[in-house]
Amino acid sequence: MTEPKIHSPATPEAAKKQPRDGKGNATIYDIAKVAGVNPSTVSRALSKPGRVSAKTQKLIQDAAAELNYQVNPFARALPTGRTNTFGLIVADITNPTFFDIIRGAQTTGTLRDYTLVLAESAESAATELTAARRMMATADGLILASPRMDDDDIRALARDKPVVVINREVEGVPSVIPDVRKGIGEAVRSLAANGHKRIAFVAGPAQSWMSARRWEGFESACEWSRLEAVRVESTKPTVDGGRQVARDVLSTGATAVLAYNDLLAIGLMQELQAGGMAVPDQISIVGFDDIFGADFTTPPLTTVRSPLGECGAGAAARLLDLLQGKGNAEPEGTLQMETELVLRGSSGRLLAAGQR
Amino acid sequence: MTEPKIHSPATPEAAKKQPRDGKGNATIYDIAKVAGVNPSTVSRALSKPGRVSAKTQKLIQDAAAELNYQVNPFARALPTGRTNTFGLIVADITNPTFFDIIRGAQTTGTLRDYTLVLAESAESAATELTAARRMMATADGLILASPRMDDDDIRALARDKPVVVINREVEGVPSVIPDVRKGIGEAVRSLAANGHKRIAFVAGPAQSWMSARRWEGFESACEWSRLEAVRVESTKPTVDGGRQVARDVLSTGATAVLAYNDLLAIGLMQELQAGGMAVPDQISIVGFDDIFGADFTTPPLTTVRSPLGECGAGAAARLLDLLQGKGNAEPEGTLQMETELVLRGSSGRLLAAGQR
DNA sequence: GCAATTTTGGCAACCGGTTGACAAGAGCGG
DNA sequence: CCGCTCTTGTCAACCGGTTGCCAAAATTGC
């Protein structure tokens, strides 16, 4: 009497189920029937090139085309564990630094037939770890861009599946980082050539690995050029943070500034200009990263370009090599990307006060 | 005698397999063994609240916690077809318009325990369709941001699984669009109040649905304010495209411009300023979208803000409602988001040539 | 205290591929 | 023409959950 199987087509349930039963979901069993072979033969024909004879291969491919078959990724993933998917975790999707990284990773991923899954950690090490764990379950590998978590946590993840880190070096885990020395060297020499004697570095977050590297590079470049390097701390690496740090920068008496990133540089420039300072006539400003919009400012921002897109692409390539068994030769080690100075209008010669 | 199961740990194969066999992959069978119940009971306890008694529930949950079990998403997806995943396809990851959309979608997705999968169509309708098809196989639903493909293609996709469209209206498919009228009305009235008589609209791509809407809104707002509206075509909706169109804009004799998007506006402003024009003294420029960086320019760009983040979030919420069976009341129809004028420095009163 | 009813847990089939083992068939030399 | 090797297709088990059906157990009513 009870008839639990009735699908009254009006219910949302029925509507939801429809697609799966409908068309477009041919299985290897359907193909096998059409081609008159065994399902496993179909499986081999479709994924192990050369394992079946040329003529059954063709037979099967035709049948597959006719039914417009596509593999069910889950069915494939279940026994193999491979998903043709990789994860990318960024600290903050809002932060333009990551845009290019995402794009680079996405592009090379697609090129090599991998799908990108994106997650955000909201700048929290805990959230980041959670997200990473979750991704590990579904993705074949993971890219961590500027991770906030411990080295140990990263290594633990890397023990499960291939992991590539961007913007940080972790012992035993392959990484892709921009080599800041060249770019910073160019920036500092350029400032020195323009007559600056004391230049300030506006630091990023205290726990940022990258900020530490940039400060190191800055210090040694200044030493080399016999300039006085002073360090100013910022509250947060954003436009707003740049605004807030303007007063501190001025009080150092520096005539040029290298900021930890472009956002800080832009905020700083805005605030200084609002206070009547002329850029670059009274103070030179150099940013870092060459993010989208760095050339929207007036004057356009001089900046040390990090090849973010290439970092993303490089990390993806690295990861995919690992996944596909290539590049076993050097499973770890650091891939250094070159940085370079992009000279625009916000840096230049200091004009004496009288010359204004 | 034959021992086919031997894993020689030295081979890369073994290394690859390791993670799956290692720790961290407890199954419901393991839990069942520990808790002394049947696997199916475990399955029920974990996914059908209330289906098993409170005390076995607890028993099972403890066992699960102890083994730190996590479901294998593929195993779950295989019989059910549900993946707790949704796709987002954008035309161009480079385009900052989409950044906020991505972020909005990602955020609400994560909040509701769904994972975002991102794809890019490279502005090509064909690529877009391919990507969409591929996603359909793995995702529970799809968000199309500013899709380039035919209405028919979109409807075809929507027949398979829930689809939500952003920045376009497609009969029979739910969509989220910014209602441009309010924002454009404010912009045009503001320009009118500043004494402008003839204003130009720099159009976007010819096939863009959104560009057509913006032009319509512009025309009718101009009519309402008794201003003369002229239309200028652009080659591409980028900073570069904006530069290229500067000459055409000037030749219309318009004293104010509304651009299809901020990139065009920024390029236009750069080129005009490079040619010696003062903004806004000689020409007012208004952009569209309020993208990241719109306030980096000098003067900062006046723009009609599209609530892109909210569009992304709204579309995700809509889609997830659909997936979770909520909101059946209005499975289709358009969700309109309000636009508003963000008045910054690039628009204002026209100064007579003599007043310069 | 017993029958009727509702809970609760177990069994087994299934989702759609993959893969090791094996046997039938093809190709070959002698 | 026979026996050998190599290729090619089939069988069956498996990945890890989900779910319909049924029966045992617990609860309820009288």
TrEMBL record, chains A, B:
Recorded superkingdom: Bacteria
Signal peptide span: none
Family matches, as SUPFAM superfamilies: lambda repressor-like DNA-binding domains (SSF47413), Periplasmic binding protein-like I (SSF53822)
Gene3D superfamilies xref list: 3.40.50.2300, lambda repressor-like DNA-binding domains
One Pfam family recorded for the sequence: LacI
Biased composition, class Basic and acidic residues, residue ranges: 14-23
Chain spans, region Disordered: 1-23
SMART domains membership: HTH_LACI
Protein keywords: DNA-binding, Transcription, Transcription regulation
Residues covered by the HTH lacI-type domain: 26-80
Name assigned to this protein: LacI family transcriptional regulator
